[in-house]
Design goal:
By secondary structure, the chain is mainly beta. It has 2 domains: 140 residues, no CATH class; 97 residues. Helices cover 15% and strands 41% of the residues. The longest helix is centred in the first third of the chain and has 35 residues. The N terminus and C terminus are likely disordered.
Length: 317
Amino acid sequence: MRKYLVSVVLIIALFACKDDKTSGDDKQTEASGFYAAYGKLKLPFSVTDTSIIDVADTSTISYPIFTKFIPDTIFNHPFGKDRKLTIHPIGKIEQKGKETYLVTLVKSKSRSAIYLSVIDKDKFTTSMPLAISNEDEIVHSAAIDKKLTIVINDEWTIKNDIYYERTIYAYNNVGIFTVVLTETNKERNTETAILNPLDTFPKKYKYSGDYANGSKKVLFIRDGQRPDEYRFFVHFTNENQDDPCGGELKGQFKMVSDKAGVYNGNGDPCVLDLSFSGNEVRVKETGSCGNYRGIRCFFNDTYTKKKEPKTSAKKKV
């Protein structure tokens, strides 16, 4: 009986060792299969928010496999907590002896996004969204050139005039994408009309509406998908014409109490606190939002809600 038990233990140990070896082989096979799913990406590469789904074929990577190599926190913007996603490999950019760039299309039922992720020395280092499907009137586009410069561009039209904002990024040896240059042809004066990219969204919720602090500082708030969520767009320019500084940011904030909301950048360190009191809202930058403003100014101000224009009542016949 004792000999039988010893034999059983040895057999179990043998299979355990074999399983461990197979597990290691499986990991190597998984990694090879994961990277092989991304074909070589031809540069220059470009995409717009209206053509996102056209840049990938029907091949997919399963969520469990993808998240073994790239953390699912990259999905926080714009998908929030939604993890019912379809993942399509678009392509990879390999550099001999250097980092590898992966371009991936991710889709939920209602949204799509393209991410640029960096693998350096077989480890994930950083990721950024290149393009996100939007329902506003701004054309959002992104491009990667042969020098691996990333350009994010927004373009819109006001009274037949074309305006743009362009931000250029580059990956650095610290392992992050940094802003190299920002360009815009927006006029920054009191006569310039500030485009409201959320104008088509409803404003039935308690705090939805248009807020302002003079002619150069505006905050537009519109209904989100749920009563405790709001879409917003904030734009400001300081009054010092000799040393102009400003910024703008579009996103969604969530109410954390009856009179307080928080915007969290989901992937970057930008955090804004919004405090509501009467017809005013105070915006305070509690995280680092330097990617969305000048270095000498902050998203700290108080905005007053504008009165809704009165609609003329129809006379009874």
